[in-house]
Design goal:
The chain is an alpha/beta fold. The chain has two domains: 270 residues, Aldehyde Dehydrogenase, Chain A, domain 1, CATH 3.40.605.10; 183 residues, Aldehyde Dehydrogenase, Chain A, domain 2 (3-Layer(aba) Sandwich). The chain is built from 15 helices and 23 strands. Strand 8, helix 5 and strand 9 form a beta-alpha-beta unit. Helix 3 packs antiparallel against helix 6 and helix 9 crosses helix 10. The site of adenosine-5'-diphosphate (ADP) has 16 residues, from helix 7 and helix 8.
Length: 477
């Protein structure tokens, strides 16, 4: 089997390979991927540092052409890359292809942004002096990504970093190196000068840590767990570097008495279980007012029982497997904890056997949960959700906001008054009305507040805030 190597200073290097395993079928090895050492990470950082002066001054047409080419190739290969993604991560083929198309759209968007770099020219407060405000690249950007969106998250960090003239050291999650390797290969062949984009696949504690410890990494953008996010923050404060964190969520989805039942059920099922519940924007707290509670729970149960859980690549599969054994154990531990805490496991939660050995879990729905239970406070990151019964809208909003997190917040209602009030008062970075908590556009800001995120927003034009630094220049006329 061919070894997929790391890219350092424009050369494919590294010999020590690790198998990338398919969670739908653990007998299926997706490929062999090199594992970088801390020294490799340091070499990659040095290469990115050396490449920065020239790349930061490169013409906008050069950057535009490379990002455009990447967008075109990703789109042309969407079926193949989508299949690779679903094979290594376990989301359904439709979800894998959809995410691949999204990555192409992101490169396309930032290809356009290269051509729209603007500054401001103002008169000074003093006579005969002019002021210019411009944006410059930050320098070497460290990119650390999680396993749940193997192509979209790397795309939404790499594309703006390149667009605004930064160089990159990129460390993807160990579980899903395949999609990352593919986009780095595409960008490399699209003509990036050597050292501008370096790929170091490997362990967070080794490769990631070497990035955190380097004074030559000027900014780090991280998506992953709260614990690692805190390490990124502490190390970044130490080095006085810019950092951006996207971490967990415990997103509420409120269902009011006046909701359209089918809209509410579809949005709740999507929020809780699609992508196997492995999205930081997934909803695991479904907060339902008492007038619709029993009808909603019955309809949810019916819908859950009809969901097809199977091999991600099989036609008709709606929910793929959990990503690996340790995540599966975490999910089943939380199912046991919920039961011990007194919630009622109303539907699902059983381990499933399929034709191939994989990590199959029936989506689980608890009822009679309270917002104080651990299943309502801690991020589970699997297809496990709990229904919390409340009296009215006011209580629903209080419960929705009573969480350490603040990424996404959803509501199902036909009341303009409640929808408007919820949009204003939900303590979250993103609010969804009659839509799932997950499922966002690529051209508008993404991010949260409270314990979910730190730093400026990702995606859309707001990404410029992180990937550039502002300069104010004064000139005597
Ligand atoms: P998850 O639970 O989603 O795997 P992690 O925070 O462990 O979340 O992983 C997210 C990313 O952070 C991965 O690429 C992982 O390898 C990386 N990572 C883990 N530990 C460290 C560390 N000490 N320093 C830097 N990166 C790390």
């Amino acid at each position: 089997m061919t070894l997929h190597q790391n890219l350092i200073a424009g050369e494919w290097v590294g010999g020590d390979g690790v198998a990338n395993i398919n969670p739908s079928n653990t007998n299926d090895v997706v490929g062999e991927y090199a594992r970088a050492s801390a020294d490799d990470a340091r070499a990659a950082i040095a290469a990115a540092k050396a490449a920065f002066p020239a790349w930061s001054r490169s013409g906008i047409l050069e950057r535009h052409a490379i990002l455009r080419k990447a967008a075109d190739e990703i789109l042309a290969r969407k079926d193949e890359l989508g299949k690779l993604l679903s094979r290594e991560e376990g989301k359904t083929l439709a979800e894998g292809i959809g995410e691949t198309v999204r990555a192409s759209q992101i490169f396309d968007f930032f290809a356009g942004e290269c051509l729209r770099l603007v500054g401001e020219v103002l008169p000074s407060a003093r006579p005969n002096i002019g002021v210019e405000i411009t944006r410059e690249p930050v320098g070497v950007v460290g990119i650390i990504t999680p396993w749940n969106f193997p192509i979209a998250i790397p795309a939404w960090k790499i594309a703006p970093a390149l667009c605004y003239g930064n160089t990159i050291v990129f460390k993807p999650a160990e579980l899903v190196p395949g999609s990352s390797w593919a986009i780095v290969d595409i960008l490399h062949r699209a003509g990036l000068p050597k050292g501008v984009l370096n790929l170091v696949m490997g362990k967070g504690s080794v490769v990631g840590q070497a990035m955190l410890d380097s004074p030559d990494v000027h900014a780090i953008t991280f998506t992953g767990s709260t614990g690692t996010g805190k390490r990124v923050a502490m190390a970044s404060v130490e080095h006085n570097r810019k950092y951006q964190l996207e971490m967990g969520g415990k997103n509420p989805f409120v269902v009011l008495d006046d909701a359209d039942l089918s809209v509410a059920v579809e949005a709740a099922v999507n929020s809780a279980f699609f992508s196997t519940g492995q999205r930081c924007t997934a909803s695991s707290r479904i907060i339902v007012t008492e007038g619709i509670h029993d009808r909603f729970v019955a309809a949810m149960g019916e819908r859950i029982q009809g969901l097809v859980v199977d091999d991600a690549l099989k036609a008709g599969t709606q929910i793929g497997p959990v990503v690996d054994e340790s995540q599966l154990n975490q999910d089943t531990d939380y199912i046991a904890i919920g039961t011990q805490e007194g919630a009622k496991l109303a539907f699902g939660g059983a381990l499933l056997t399929r034709d191939t050995p994989g990590f199959y879990l029936q989506p689980a729905l608890f009822t009679e949960a309270t917002n104080q239970m651990r299943i309502s406070r801690e991020e589970i990151f699997g297809p496990v959700a709990a229904v919390i019964r409340v009296k009215d809208y006011e209580e629903a909003l209080t419960v929705a906001n009573d969480t350490p997190f603040g990424l996404s917040s959803g509501i199902a209602t036909t009341s303009l008054k409640h929808a408007t009030h919820f949009k204003r008062n939900a303590e979250a970075g993103m609010v969804m009305v009659n839509l799932p908590t997950a499922g966002v556009d690529f051209h508008v800001p993404f991010g949260g507040r409270k314990g979910s995120s730190h730093g400026s927003r990702e995606q859309g034009r707001y990404a410029a805030e992180f990937y550039t630094t502002v300069k104010t220049a004064y000139t005597l006329a």
